[in-house]
Amino acid sequence: MRITLLVDGAKRAVVSDKLVLKICEDVGKCWNDLGIMLNLPDATIRNVDDDFRRSREKARAILRIWKERNGDAATVGSLADALEEVKMKEIAQRLIGM
Predict the structure, then answer these.
(1) 58 vs 13, 44, 55, 70, CA distance in Å?
(2) Is the dihedral of CA 65, 71, 76, 77 positive or negative?
(3) Rg of the Cα trace of the chain?
(4) Residue whose C-alpha is closest to residue 65's, from 92, 41, 97
(5) How far apart are CA 30 and CA 21, in angstroms?
(6) I want to staple 59 with a disulfide (CB 3.0 to 4.6 A). Which of 24, 25, 78, 83 is the partner?
(7) Sign of torsion, CA 27 79 47 30?
């Protein structure tokens, strides 16, 4: 029961900048798919692709934009769900445990 409460609490937490830094390297080349799963507009994703060279930078930008647009709704749970959708379940599970 206690573990369930901890996991539920982690999922409801708002994604921090520190958390973004910890996972953007792992997101890597899947940043584009993640942007789509986070419901970012195609134009935003294209702009990120044009503005940044490295996948890590693109992932960080996508996550930052998502956080800014979603505010308190940018939760660990919603990010974990999007990561699972792009076949990054290991990162999603690690994210909830951070």
Answers:
(1) 23, 11, 5, 18
(2) negative
(3) 13
(4) 41
(5) 15
(6) 24
(7) positive
38 token code pair: 């986070």
Side-chain-side CA neighbours of residue 98 (13 Å): 21
pLDDT at 4: 39
- Each residue's pLDDT, cut to its tens digit, for the chain (98 residues) gives 433 333 455 678 889 999 898 888 889 889 999 999 999 999 999 999 999 999 999 999 999 999 999 999 999 999 999 999 999 999 888 887 76
- State the CB neighbour count (10 A cutoff) for residue 85: 15
What does the block give as tokens for 46?
A: 């294209």
C-alpha span between 85 and 3 (Å, rounded): 24
Would you tell me how many other CB atoms lie within 10 Å of the CB of residue 94?
15
